[in-house]
Amino acid sequence: MSLDSTEPNLSLSSFSASGSSGSVSAAAAGGIFIAVVSSFINGSTFVLQKKGIIRSVHRGGSYLTDVLWWSGTVAMIVGQIGNFVAYNMAPAVIVTPLGALGVLFGAVLASWILQEHLNTLGKLGCVLCCCGSVMLIIHAPKSEAVTTRLELEERLSDPVFVSFCVLVLVLLVALVVWVAPAHGSSNIMVYVSICSLLGSFTVPCSKGLGLAAPDVFGDEGVSSSSSRATVLFLGLLVTLVLSVLVQFFFINKALERFSSNMFEAIYYVTFTSTVILASALLFREWTSLTFTDAVAMMCALSTVCVGVVLLRISHEAEITWKKKEGREKRD
């Protein structure tokens, strides 16, 4: 079966057409539903993987042999596939904030399975992070209709977007090669930054694959246009796979050392922010940004920053309390 770019489930054109009249297309509604289900699935991944890591440490073996860790890994794969489908059925500015549902669901699971109970500051920080991120996306500039591969190719070669990609790559190399070995085990923001920066590639690649696929698997036959589409498709696919694998590695490194509750909340916030920036640069969404939306986004970003600070303070307070409690027991 060939993939036809005119089919509503693989194109954003139907949403663009209906979006102009104020209604939501069936494809977009289906993408939103899939995103909600994927958010709940993704919310369980960090908890299950963390539980598997804890059990393997107690046994003295590798978490690669733990059933719970593998169940979390499978859940992550299923959730990411769901996100891939959702991003190609509805705009990222609608799909991305639904990840907040996974953060809250993960917090509930962590308190039940891992006994990771956030204190008052931690709970307030989690709520502020989710609310701020949702408001950030609500007031983010809406994507212009990019419905063809040629439009995507043109925007991928934009000097501003190319400069952004180069900057992200430089930061990633510095974090992975120098910062992570020295400070990764003591500062959660190192691993979070690596995974979030990679998010600026994963979401555009997911959407780009959906646009390039019809030209690659269509019935037009071999042509210079289809050859360019194949090169673009393979390039996006390799970038997506590498980004996901590196994220997967550093997510597990973070779960070995930090609370799944705190990691998931901060990761969601930073991931959402980088996705907004990458999408805005690639699709030139800032051209439709109003003054009111700009002010609202600044307020939302401030709310997110306060939430992250509260999460960090709550984590440091918990560590200090445990150390003090341990000294009192020894005395």
From TrEMBL:
It comes from the Eukaryota. Keywords: Membrane, Transmembrane, Transmembrane helix. The keyword Mitochondrion does not apply. GO terms for cellular component: membrane. It is a multi-pass membrane protein. GO terms for molecular function: magnesium ion transmembrane transporter activity. Its main location: membrane. It holds the Pfam family Mg_trans_NIPA. PANTHER family: MAGNESIUM TRANSPORTER NIPA1 (PTHR12570:SF17), PTHR12570. Belongs to the NIPA family. This is Magnesium transporter NIPA1.
